[in-house]
Amino acid sequence: MKKLYKYFQILGFSALIISCNNKDNIPTLGGVDKELEDLLVISSKGIGSEFYILPTSTELSKIPQDPKNPLTPAKVELGKFLFHETALGQNPKKEMSFQTYSCASCHHAKAGFQACLPQGIGEGGLGFGSAGEKRVMNTAYKSSEIDVQPLKSPSALNIAYQSNILWNGQFGSKGVNVGTDAKWTAGTPKAVNKMGYEGVETQAIAGRDVHRLIIDRIMMNTIPQYKSMFTQAFGEETLIDENLLKVNGALAIAAYERTLMADQAPFQQWLKGNLNAMTDQEKEGAKVFFGKGDCASCHNGPNLANMEFHALGMGDLKDGSYGNAEVHNIGAVNPELKGRGGFTGNEADFYKFKVPQLYNLKDSPFYGHGSSFTTIEQVLNYKNLGVKENSLVPANKLSEKFKPLNLSQTEIKALEAFIKNALYDGNLNRYVPKKLPSGLAFPNNDRQSKIDLGL
């Protein structure tokens, strides 16, 4: 509890009640702040507000990390550039897309490190708009040729708190994937699990080939700044072995991703002692979140998520129009649409998807693994009603936690305010480089994107 008052001396005392009987002479919370703190103590099993505080991106020792990929400033800095570097787009299916895409094409800061689309588009995409919302398929491509996934691109924000990555959790040799070795099929991206890394690192390594990206000595010689940065992060030997260079480049990207923390959001400020950081409505919404709404039974911890998988009966991505956006190449049969079960093959896992983190959701107006909702309010009303929308999901597969919540519209509005505004970090641009060593545009480098970006 003392952590919550660390900065109380710089705040107004209107929300506090000073108790002279407190032996430590520490102010005690009053009103809605006290009620919220009491709920946090319960949801954190006695720890309280400290349990929910995200570290800053520079507090490397406090950030969850893979022991095989310890975080260092040099590694994180290299990863920041490589994550956005369109010069890595060297393996396109069509020459016209050479060096026009990057990791950030589908996970950029303006969309809360999501895509601002129902389905992110890497290679084969054109345009950006103001926040990624106008990226479309290049008509010179067939749907089967572009780099898209059958599910909504998940956020890379607060990803350090995930031991296993993707909606089905297939990446990562540890955590929930212990004992799934038989599913790490040779010749597929899942085989990267055999390298023994955690999920963030495994996804970054696998993503090189999946997303048609190349990190090699040719790039090092073409862009000398990278040669220096690789040496600082990993030593001279990394420049000698081509495969080591590729792996270390991916590890640097993973290191950078682990530092993407929404630690400046109003709720985070409140947790650190600024009791005026949230509005009264947002505080009431937080009370619903950690209390009556029972949201924290799944969305818990610093990133308000966990490594559980639940079937909520939400709709899948489907080919066709989503408002002004298009979805491509889903297909009638796709194992990813069966969630965790599509990876494990276990009947009990069918239609279960990983619990997502909740920060900066309003940056990308598509929600659920299939982007079937376009507002946070729609998602809340759906969960409050507790009736599935996907006819393909059998009722007996639904999570026991998917049931009517009996929240009033006033409570839903307060809950929406908490999730939409109090969990919103408006300064994610601090994680974006001002320019790339290659000098290319980013997150996309195609002609229309450069026009949209004002370049």
Q: Gist?
A:
The protein is built from 12 helices and 8 strands. With 455 residues, it is mainly alpha-helical. It folds into 2 domains: 2-57 and 262-422, Cytochrome c-like domain (Cytochrome Bc1 Complex, Chain D, domain 2, Orthogonal Bundle); 65-261 and 430-452, Cytochrome c-like domain (Cytochrome Bc1 Complex, Chain D, domain 2).
Please give a handful of descriptors for the protein shown.
mainly alpha; Cytochrome Bc1 Complex, Chain D, domain 2; 2 domains; two-stranded antiparallel sheet; two-stranded antiparallel ribbon; 8 strands; 4% strand; globular
Characterise the protein shown here.
The chain has helices at about 30-45, 75-85, 200-210, 215-220, 225-235, 240-260, 265-270, 280-290, 340-345, 375-385, 410-420, 445-450; strands spanning about 15, 30, 125, 135, 310, 320, 325, 355. It has about 450 residues and is mainly α. The protein has two domains: about 1-55 and about 260-420, Cytochrome c-like domain (Cytochrome Bc1 Complex, Chain D, domain 2, Orthogonal Bundle), CATH 1.10.760.10; about 65-260 and about 430-450, Cytochrome c-like domain (Cytochrome Bc1 Complex, Chain D, domain 2, Orthogonal Bundle). Helix 2 (about 75-85) crosses helix 6 and helix 10 crosses helix 11 (about 410-420). Residues about 1-25 have low confidence and may be disordered.
